[in-house]
Specification:
single chain; disordered C terminus
Length: 446
């Protein structure tokens, strides 16, 4: 019995961290595998069983200590991985801002020589056909179990194809998305003809607020007061943009077109979330490739109809600004790759900061390259208000609970350490140490 009591006391030294909740104690480990050890019938068998149990318990304790140390060493590498993803997010966000700014400037240059905005967005949308081949190339380079292209496409296109996969079924499933995609780009290019690229980019950032409203109404997302405040700030910025040149100027039409583009973009993303759920890089690449296929097959007739009705005018082929069109199409493709496939390397929220950074980037391009006039104070204030609303919309859904729990855990951790030190000191001095009381503010939080 003495040996049995000593065995019950064998346990690894306690360590702090997540490994405590992941690994079982030696007694739990033994119970899970074979249940509790049966009692010995006589004292000799009991002594031998206790000795064997003590030896097994010690071995299991050592194994658990080693496993916990390995788990602790793995946990110490997690911050490094998170830091790498954060750095990649900042880098990709800057690349997103640069691609959008230069692409918007190329669009304004092409519209000055070619007044055919629908043909321009049609030409750029056809490049989306390359999204899935680029995703599959990354799959071949990084996946451990590689698949054939057809198997990978079928796996990622489950939200579009429920039965046999045919071109007709793909076009039918992707047609609503292609209409919203082309309409959003068409309205954005029409807005660029009347307002600056910085103003158009700032208004396009308001699409995040429209996404929240549509998701709250259509997808029953969680209501958040801070996001309602962000939507109000976005609408305030839009009104200030329209008021910058007066409500009777031509810029009010450009602002209205940009708001229409932002609303259509929000509807596209909410519809995508409703069909897919959580957006993954594979599903996004398949959808954009199908959108490019729809633009090639279906929207080509719209270009011809607009040309025959003299809504748009195409100059002879040698006078079309192909260089600006190719630059715009390639940069839009790079933008889509970074936004939809960059989540493999970085946090999507940091990549989304690229759209916010595109506002000063487009303003700088307008001022230094396009020789645009200096921004007025009303426009700067409107862009700042829209930026604050955009940042508030990037906050996660449980950000308030996370902040409260973090402050509570930080304070309780320090308070418990102080109380443990006081108890040790009291034990050495023969006195009983009293724990420090919590402040009233932290007590109210707990």
């Amino acid at each position: 019995m003495a040996m049995k009591k000593q065995t019950a006391k064998v346990s690894p030294s306690p360590i702090t961290g997540p490994a405590v909740f992941l690994l079982p104690t030696p007694q739990e480990h033994a119970e899970r595998q074979g249940g509790p050890q049966p009692a010995a019938e006589d004292g000799q068998d009991g002594g031998q069983g206790g000795g064997q149990g003590g030896g097994k318990g010690g071995d299991q304790a050592e194994e658990c200590v080693e496993k916990r140390e390995d788990s602790k060493s793995r946990c110490t590498r997690c911050p490094l991985r998170a830091m790498c993803r954060a750095v990649w997010g900042l880098v990709l966000g800057c690349c997103v801002a640069l691609a959008w700014a230069v692409g918007t400037h190329s669009a304004k240059q092409s519209l000055e020589q070619l007044h055919a905005p629908f043909f321009t967005i049609w030409f750029c949308s056809t490049w989306n056909l390359l999204l899935f081949p680029l995703y599959y190339l990354g799959h071949l380079l990084g996946a451990e179990q590689r698949q054939w292209p057809t198997a990978c496409f079928r796996q990622c296109s489950g939200f579009l194809v429920e039965e046999d996969m045919t071109v007709r079924v793909l076009l039918k499933g992707a047609a609503p998305f292609s209409v919203l995609w082309s309409l959003s780009g068409y309205l954005y290019l029409l807005a660029l003809c009347r307002i600056s690229a910085g103003d158009a980019s700032a208004i396009l950032c308001c699409s995040q607020g429209f996404i929240f409203l549509l998701s709250w109404i259509g997808l029953n997302d969680r209501f958040m007061g801070v996001r309602i405040v962000a939507v109000i700030l976005s609408i305030t910025g839009i009104v200030m943009m329209a008021y910058a040149d007066g409500f009777h100027s031509d810029s009010i039409t450009g602002v209205a077109l940009a708001v229409g583009s932002a609303s259509t973009t929000a509807l596209y993303k909410v519809l995508f979330r409703k069909r897919v759920g959580e957006v993954q890089p594979g599903t996004a690449s398949v959808l954009l490739s199908c959108v490019g296929l729809c633009c090639c097959v279906l929207h080509s007739w719209v270009c011809v109809i607009l040309y025959l009705t003299h809504v748009e005018y195409w100059p002879p082929i040698q006078y079309i600004p192909w260089d600006a069109l190719f630059v715009m199409a390639s940069l839009l493709l790079a933008f889509n790759v970074l936004v939809n496939l960059g989540s493999v390397l970085a946090y999507p929220s940091l990549i989304s900061l690229g759209m916010l950074l595109s506002i000063p980037a487009n303003s700088a391009v307008d001022f230094y390259v396009a020789a645009a006039p200096q921004l007025s104070q009303v426009r700067v204030a409107a862009a700042a208000i829209i930026g604050v609303g955009y940042l508030l919309l990037l906050l996660p859904g449980d950000w308030d609970d996370s902040v409260v729990h973090w402050i509570e855990g930080l304070w309780q951790g320090g308070w418990k350490e102080d109380s443990v030190v006081g108890e040790d000191g009291g034990a050495d001095g023969g006195e009983i140490a009293k724990p420090k009381p919590k402040p009233a503010g932290i007590a109210a939080l707990t």
